Amino acid sequence: MKFPRATHRNIYVKTRRAGERVMESVKVFLEKKLKLKVNPKKSQVDRASRVKFLGFSFYKRNGEVLIRIANRSKERFAEKLRRLTKRTRSGKLEDVIQEINRYTMGWIGYYRLANTPRVYEDMDSWIHRRLRQMVWKRWKRGTTRYRELVKMGIPRWRAQEGAGSKGPWRMANSPVIKEALSNNYLRNSGLKSIKTRYQELRFT
User: Fold this and answer.
1) CB–CB of 10/51 below 8 Å?
2) What's the pTM?
3) Residue 45 has pLDDT above 60, yes or no
4) Where along the chain do its domains lie?
5) What span, in angstroms and rounded, lies between the C-alpha atoms of 168 and 156?
6) Which of 45, 53, 128, 134 lies in disulfide reach of 19, CB 3.0 to 4.6 Å?
7) What is the pLDDT of residue 169?
């Protein structure tokens, strides 16, 4: 007879000694009574701030225990967005943005439980820079960059700065590129804000 796999559970106690005692008793109960196998690699006794649970971890501030996103969860988020915004990607900017929205809005729907609004603000800024880098790289030649910047309303003398040969990531953070491909420009192109959606889900 096969038993279903148990879901992940965290048990919180005051001391490590109590944790070790509870770990042993729970292990005996699961293995002896329920005939379930406990995975030793995924079972541990540690501080709440050092373990993750379903993509979250915990931290303490002013005596209050709060929820944050686990580091590995943030790494996976960045990996996904790097693929969606890679410099060699083809397709319309609006289509790329729609794909980003589908991922980020679903992602924040789950991670809205975290008490880390600054993290979401940083993620928005990082995505903006990734998109600026992608667009700037697509323009390829200096003459094309110059022409596109002028078309966007950048004075000719400043457009020359944006047409330079510096690396895409560095140029994506330059004042002239940030002005041409501003946050408003990206928002008007359809990009949704992770922080704004977080605030909507948490406070409305």
Assistant:
1) yes
2) 0.78
3) no
4) 16-68, 70-203
5) 20
6) 45
7) 93
In our burial notation (b when 16+ CB lie closer than 10 A, e otherwise), range 24-57 reads eeeeeeeeeeeeeeeeeeeeebeeeeeebeebbb
The answer to whether residues 67 and 113 touch, using CB atoms and an 8 Å cutoff, is yes
Distance CA 28, CA 190 (A): 54
* H helical segments located in the chain: 16-28, 71-84, 93-111, 117-139, 142-151, 156-162, 168-171, 175-180, 183-188, 194-203
- CA–CA distance, 77 with 107 (Å, rounded to integer): 8
Closest CA to 120 of 56, 76, 84, 69: 69
DSSP 58: E
Non-local CB neighbours of 78 within 8 Å, separated by 6+ positions: 126
The predicted pLDDT at position 1 comes to: 38
Residue 48 has what DSSP assignment? G
- State how far the Cα of 39 lies from the Cα of 31, in Å rounded to an integer: 11
65-99 pLDDT per residue, tens: 788 898 899 999 999 999 999 988 889 999 999 99
